[in-house]
Specification:
Elements lengths: L2 E2 L1 H9 L3 H9 L9 E2 L14 H8 L2 E3 L12 E3 L11 H17 L7 H17 L3 H12 L17 H18 L10 H7 L8
Helix pairs in contact: 1-2, 4-7, 4-8, 5-6
Bound molecules: flavin-adenine dinucleotide (FAD).
The site of flavin-adenine dinucleotide (FAD) has 24 residues, from helix 4, helix 6, helix 7 and helix 8.
InterPro entries: ALR/ERV (IPR039799), ERV/ALR_sulphydryl_oxid_sf (IPR036774), ERV/ALR_sulphydryl_oxidase (IPR017905)
Main location: mitochondrion
EC number: 1.8.3.2
């Protein structure tokens, strides 16, 4: 059973700004409960804010089984439980791809970043946190970035932007914040380099 996230739905009908609505509905940074569909600024279901399971349940979509090459109209249909790879991403597929990009950026950041690189990265992360298509995710991420201990300050002695190690640990902390919110286990940030730059000790990525 799927429901529409009520505050967004009501506020959208009223034409109230999306940001105001979301601040009320999402102030605590809670994970979006399963079975809840988030709306976008046009009052349409926000696909990139919703897991495919909930999306499929909401749209009652029947799609061709992923093994089949036949078009959906003729193939045996099955209730979709996972997203075919050539479809627009849901919140999970978008998240996985985005973390891959963000962690790879962090893992290839200079070991000691010059001031202009630091300023560039702060600008990138600020813009990223405003344009990430899952807007409920983005707003929580912005709030996390605004906490004094997480602020990106170019040129700051011992700051998060100083070099690859510190920036990687910051990114790892950002991801762990989302992991905690979603009830997932935290990643061991001591293994960040192995996961995102060198490959695991033992050589199975070589
Ligand atoms: C900025 C941002 C905010 C998000 N906010 C939300 C949200 O509010 N609600 C929501 O439902 N989804 C959110 N997502 C998506 C969510 O984080 C996951 O990407 C998605 O649920 C898929 O999870 P997953 O278990 O496949 O692995 P992911 O969490 O996508 O992780 C991919 C891989 O990264 C590695 N990894 C895991 N944790 C860390 C870490 N701390 N540091 C380094 N590497 C790590 C692991 O090897 C893992 O397999 C957000 C994504 C982003 C980029």
């Amino acid at each position: 059973m799927v429901e529409i996230l009520p505050i967004q739905a009501d506020e959208t009908k009223k034409g109230t700004a999306r940001r105001d609505a979301s601040e009320e509905g999402n102030k605590q940074g809670k994970a979006i409960p399963r079975g809840v569909v988030v709306l976008d600024g046009d009052g349409e279901p926000c696909r990139s804010c919703t897991s495919f399971r909930d999306w499929a349940a909401m749209t009652r979509k029947k799609i061709a089984s992923p093994q089949s090459n036949e078009p959906p109209s003729t193939a045996a249909t099955t209730t979709a439980t996972s997203l075919p790879p050539d479809c627009p991403p849901d919140a999970e597929a978008l998240g996985r791809s985005t973390w891959t990009l963000l962690h790879t950026i962090a893992a290839t950041y200079p070991t000691a970043a010059p001031p202009e690189k630091q300023a560039e990265m702060k600008t990138f992360m600020n813009i990223f946190s405003r344009i990430y298509p899952c807007w409920v995710c983005a707003e929580d991420f912005q709030r996390w970035m605004e906490r004094p201990e997480n602020k990106l300050v170019p040129g700051q002695e011992g700051g998060h932007l100083g070099g690859r190690f510190s920036f990687g640990q910051w990114m790892c902390g950002a991801h762990n914040e989302v992991n905690r919110k979603l009830g997932k286990s935290e990643f061991d940030c001591r293994r960040y380099e192995e996961r995102w730059r060198t490959g695991w000790a033992g050589g199975r990525c070589d």
